[in-house]
Design brief:
about 400 residues; Rossmann fold; 2 domains; five-stranded parallel β-sheet; elongated; binds cytidine-5'-monophosphate
Length: about 400
């Protein structure tokens, strides 16, 4: 009963996956939540108000103007007591309305008139999902803090195969628990996360860097925090706000990152998501290196940086119980990641393809494979936040099962 006393407004829009939302209502109530269902006109073509009312035990809110029976401001009041607004299935149409601030029915008016956290479970045809309009709307909603679970990849109701299938009910439920902050399975657990690039100075002005945005690492720190962990986030230079509720240590170089990581020990779990520079300039110049008149460029002498992941994963009394590394590859993803798992001595590698065409470094989405001693698990493309939430839940499972 993880959701006792929680009020969830569940908006069911018009998608074939609406039938799964009936099961979601049942599962939410099993966990003690009160579900206030809202059915859009299209949603009512897929599931009946009677089924929704019977399963939720609540009045089904369907029409903007039928809510005028008390104060005439039903759409304003409906979300006030809510802990979370869940849209499942979230259609391309409803997401477009949200992105543009339209409010021509109860669901869209409610979403616009609410200051509560919102979780979307998108569900649609592959082409609709991949359409630049949908992706732009989604990016806009994410930038406003709207959370997302799914979609999954697989066979779609339209007969096509690909991204667009609504996330499984268990995953939506887990995301709801995370967003309600009730799932404190990592309370008392200390976690260390490295994130972002490192900058290695050439002289006081110039440096060697890489394209890491820190989005994935920061999201992991936040996901672990949401599950109750005490998190130390060690971040290279990124353009992201510090996630709340944790210690954030800002560093520039790999050497500083290693020192900060060692100082943060002991921890139960370490996640090395930072894109640490493999090399640094052996002796950075004290003054800005001048351009030569003859046009000859300077030669940089490089030496290897310490490997923070290998360092943390090395056997010893301070080794965290779980050490997770990342493998950013542009080719041979799985083979390279497997080799890395063995070479670095960590327990789990999250492998992602960072080929420029996929836009992983700067983007909000990630498609990862998880590699450990047992084998390879492929996760569908999802937001970096969702990768983080899933990974945090997996970490919690591993730590609590003692594996
Ligand atoms: O060897 P490679 O850089 O591809 O390994 C990637 C993994 O190792 C990531 O988890 C990264 O954070 C970690 N790493 C590190 N210190 C380094 C290089 C990589 O912690 N110097």
């Amino acid at each position: 009963m993880t959701l006792v006393g929680k009020q969830i407004v569940l908006i069911i829009a018009g998608g074939i996956a609406a039938y799964k939302s009936l099961d979601l209502i049942r599962r939410l109530r099993d966990q003690g939540a009160v579900v206030q269902p809202v059915l859009t006109r299209a949603g009512a073509q897929f599931v009946t108000p009677l089924s929704v009312a019977a399963l939720s035990g609540q009045k089904v809110h369907e029409d903007l103007f039928s809510l005028t029976d008390d104060t005439g401001m039903g759409h304003i009041h409906l979300s006030r007591a809510a802990d979370l607004l869940v849209v499942a299935p979230a259609t391309a149409d409803l997401m477009a309305k949200m992105a543009h601030g339209l409010a021509d029915d109860l669901a869209s008016a409610l979403l616009l008139a609410s200051d509560k956290p919102i979780l979307l479970a998108p569900s649609m045809n592959l082409m609709m999902w991949n359409h630049p309009a949908t992706q732009a709307n989604l990016a806009c909603l994410r930038s406003r803090g709207v959370a997302q679970v799914g979609p999954a990849s697989g066979d779609l109701a339209c007969g096509e195969t690909g991204d667009g299938r609504m996330a499984e009910v268990a995953d939506i439920l887990a995301a709801i628990e995370t967003h309600c902050g009730v799932s404190q399975v990592l309370a008392g657990v200390r976690a260390l996360v490295t994130s972002g690039p490192t900058f290695e100075p050439i002289d006081p002005v110039r440096y060697i860097a890489n394209r890491s945005s820190g989005k994935q690492g920061h999201a992991i720190a936040q996901a672990l925090r949401q599950l109750g962990a005490a998190v130390t986030l060690i971040s290279g230079p990124v353009g992201l706000a510090d996630p709340p509720g944790m210690q954030v240590i800002k560093v520039e170089t790999a050497a500083e990152m290693l020192a900060a990581a060692q100082a943060a020990l002991p921890v139960e779990v370490a996640v090395c998501a930072a894109a640490v520079a493999d090399w640094r300039v052996t002796e950075p110049a004290r003054e800005k290196t001048k351009k030569r008149e003859d046009g000859v460029a300077p030669t940089l002498s490089l030496c290897a940086n310490p490997d923070i992941l290998a360092n943390l994963a090395a056997k010893g009394p301070l080794r965290p119980r779980l050490v997770v590394g990342f493998a950013a590859e542009t080719e041979g993803l799985i083979a390279n990641a497997k080799a890395k798992l063995a070479r670095k001595g960590c327990d789990l590698i999250v492998a992602n393809d960072v080929s420029p065409a996929l836009g992983t470094f700067a983007g909000d989405d990630n498609r990862v494979h998880l590699i450990d001693g047992q084998g390879v698990e492929e996760w569908p493309s999802m937001s970096k936040i969702e990768v983080a939430n899933r990974l945090a839940r997996l970490i919690a499972q591993r730590l609590t099962s003692g594996a």
